Amino acid sequence: MINLIPPALILIAGSLILPLLKGRTKQIYMIVLPLLTVLYLFNLSEGVYWKVNVLDYELIFGKVDKLSLAFGYIFAIITFISSIYSLHVKDNLHLVSAFVYAGSAQGAIFAGDFVTLFIFWQIMAFAAAFLVFSARTKAAFSAGMRYIMIHLFGGLLLYGGIKIHYHEIGSLLFNHMELNGLGSWLIFLGFGTTAAFPLLHGWLPDAYPESTETGTVFLSTFTTNAAVYVFSRGFAGTEFLIYIGVIMVVFPTFYGIIENNLRRVLSYSIIAQLGFMIIGIAIGTQLSLNGTIAYAFCQTLYMALLFMAMGAVLYRTGKINATDLGGLYKSMPITTILCIVGAASISGVPFTNGFVSKLMIVSAVADSGMLFVWIALLFASVGVFIYSGIKIPFFAFFSYDSGIRTKEAPKHMLIAMGLASFLCIVIGVLPGLIYSILPYPVDYEPYTAAHIIDQAHLLAFSALAFTLLVLSGIYPPEIRSINLDVDWFYRKEAAIFMKFAKFFAKIEYNIIGEAYEFMVIKPVLKMARWLKIIDTSGVDGTYNGMAKGSMTLSDTVKIIQTGKAHDYAFFMVIGIIMLILIILIPIVI
Prior knowledge:
With 589 residues, this protein is an all-alpha fold. The chain is 73% helix and 3% strand. Strand 1 (47-54) and strand 2 form a beta hairpin.
């Protein structure tokens, strides 16, 4: 059993050494550091570790159980794969941000109390924003600032909720909660901001596509999955989540189909994947929660794989819009194959990890008798298959020939994508690997004839529908466009706020400023000049006069100081006579 330090510390502290290294040494270190985290976690036993007393509170940096370990495993594995994918990156801001981001995500899922969770939650938000900034474009800077704004808002909700919750129950331990008070509601909404709840989701498709080809791979992994973790631990079985989850699986379909930027398409796909997991959490049965954790594990792999494939395309061509791509299978055949593996996994094709995880949630919904939720999942499955499983590889690598001829992705990128593809298939073929790490005992068989036939029908008819829609011209054409989403509102609000701010600044400068100068500054300056005259002529003159008088008196007294005893006796006698005269004259008169 190894439990010397929190896993978060390995990556966060280890990242500080990165700027000191160069060349091959740096690349080896980038592989060794996350690999060390993987080995450390797979040797970590369940229990409560790393307690620290601060003031009157006990902070718990290690609540290790099957739930946190499952997320810890996949976070460590994907950090290792993403680090290999990023070996060409020399930007220290990017690398340090990525490792701090991954480390803080580990810190959040092992946090045993709200204070520790909040600390890592905020580190995670800022590290992610710096990953967006690292693209060093104007669009990335703006998107990163909006990302910080939204997550600070979520952080404030979380902070307020934690304080109220503490006063309500007198404990900071992070355990299961009921939505029965203001504190739990604020915590719920704070987590919901990070989980991209409807109307709070705009930051995700806004920020993720603006990062670098490698930054988006990291971003697609940690923030939203950490949100799935906290909901699994804190709000499992909360019925209200079902309605939120249904909206989340349905609405991204429309954006995914019309969106031209392929990384933004995948960003909407993340929201749909979150919807599946939110529904699984809401149902709250052992099957649905196992399905949620398995889904989180598997979707982390295939979403990262798809983002890596699109990142490789962006890295080689500098383009990511569907209208600019096509025919790349000729130049990037291996990337094409690996992307298809990711597309098959996200679509739930049998013998991929998407099949063995998604079916658990769908089966849990069917068992609960929620027909409308089951129909929503069916609709979402078709949608995800069309806009992620077909659209992504079709428009990037096939479709019409864009004429772009480029090199295959670099070797380290191919190795990273190959590892993710390998895990997608191995877990799909041997689902016991993922079932063995789930929180509850698994009594579920994905490979039944009914499951395979149902899924085959779903995929076949979805593919047929896509083909017919494209051939008939009904499927929305890929065009250069800006699709309005909820982020439009806070972008506009910010712009309106800035206009008002400039307007009031102008008023303040031109009118209030002039009035202030006339009514306040000028009278004060005039008064200051008078006070200066009084000070120099009156006060200073008085002090100077007294000083001169004192000097004159001193000169007189100095004459009297002869140092001879008879002189002093003479002056004493004179003084006594004068004193007697002063006393007697009024009596005589």
